[in-house]
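Archive transcription. Copying these from loose printouts into the bound notebook so they stop getting lost. Printout 1 of 2:
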Amino acid sequence: EFVPAGTPVRVTRVEGARIFVRPDTDPVQE
């Protein structure tokens, strides 16, 4: 998942070479 540059993001999980991130302001929990 790609986000606009400068957007605060939090790494939610890492699988192999994939890094999953989401907007740090997103209240949704996976």
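Printout 2 of 2:
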Amino acid sequence: IPVVKVEMNNHLVEQVQQFKYLGSTITSDGKCSIEIRQRIAMAKRAFTQKRQLLTNKKLNINMRKNFVKCYVWSVLLYGCETWTINGQDKKKLEAIEMWIWRRLLKISWTERKSNVDVLDQVGEKRILLNTIKERSGKMFGHLLRHNLFMTNIFERRINGYKGRGSRGKHT
């Protein structure tokens, strides 16, 4: 990671590996694995705090699913529009989705039920990763509609000369 020197009011600003901004962890390498792990831990904490409500068999399953989406998924998916998800992150997100549904139904790992059976029992499909993709697409579209500079970059409409080996000037 290159060293960047930034000065403010004649004081050198310290370069750090990661920092929190608006509740999200920003890393110097631009990867999101740390943020995703932290969000998963926060979602588990949120579920645990509301466990008595979410696992109460006296409440309708649809009501409990709505509570999960309200209390737990909102914590998990905060800032997901900007995530870049690699293979490991994808597996962790799929695992937390199933963890939530299993806890909702009070299914122990010793029962050895398949994920398909759990999803059938709860009446859901795997939608967490699709939700993240959908939100990312909406944010991308919002950027393109409302920011002319970003639109020009994405559509390669920047005037100037390309580097060595190029086909010429862009217009």
